[in-house]
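Lab notebook page, bench 4
Experiment: in silico fold of construct C2
Operator: M.H.
Input chain length: 265 residues
Purpose: comparison with the prior construct
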Amino acid sequence: MSWIIPGLWGWLAGGALLIGAAVGWFFQLPIRSVASVMAFGSGVLLSALSFDRMDEAQRRGGLVATGAGFVIGAALFTGASSVLAEHGAKHRKRSNGKQPSESEHAGSGLAIALGALLDGIPESIVIGTSMLAGKGVSLVAVIAIFLSNLPEGLSSSAGMRKAKRSAAYVFGLWAAIAFVSGLASIVGFVAFRGAPPGVTSLVTAIAAGAILAMLIDTMIPEAFEESHALAGVVAVGGFLCAFALSKATAEPAPKCISNGTVEAR
């Protein structure tokens, strides 16, 4: 039953989508406030990728596997996202009314749903692969994904409401994606348990590359467009919070002493 643990962590992080969706649906927050929360979430996720997942992948599998995976992940996400954008999912995270309604763009509802799924799966796989080293889940990754999912659900559901989509569609969509998030975490753990370090590093880096491409493609534009005067500062605040958490939860580095032995700092 060890496989259920990464699933629970994935469902916890994915549950933030539902919380954010509820806030975005039931409360009319100022667009600038929504964009600021999006900027903070972007900074948190960027920091987690930089100092937690990519660093771990490089240590376990080397720079070549990690670098290759990072580029592959970004390319795969960008290609899939471009196809979905042509079918109406380009502004799936926007809260300012740019999302098309079904009458304006037939099939856009399905495209947005698939786009949201595309955004969420790499994050969940990262949670699952973080447990492969046998040291438990990466709390930095879980917290970063949870915090980034809040503004994602908030902004997107606000945009869906302006596009005249029903509450059943919105909450059904995010509930389904939260559920799939847990399943993706399980897949990330079970499918690559026992795999060589180079393989797990490659998979982690692919997911990380997809997440970074998602940030640049969807979250950061929303944050900058609506709160460009503050977006940078708020994103830096999110980055710093995740960086501090990463350092607080890091294992102590070894320290050499005079007799040649090693002790923890």
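Observations: The chain is about 75% helix and 0% strand. Strands lie at 254-256, 262-264.
Next step: discuss at group meeting.
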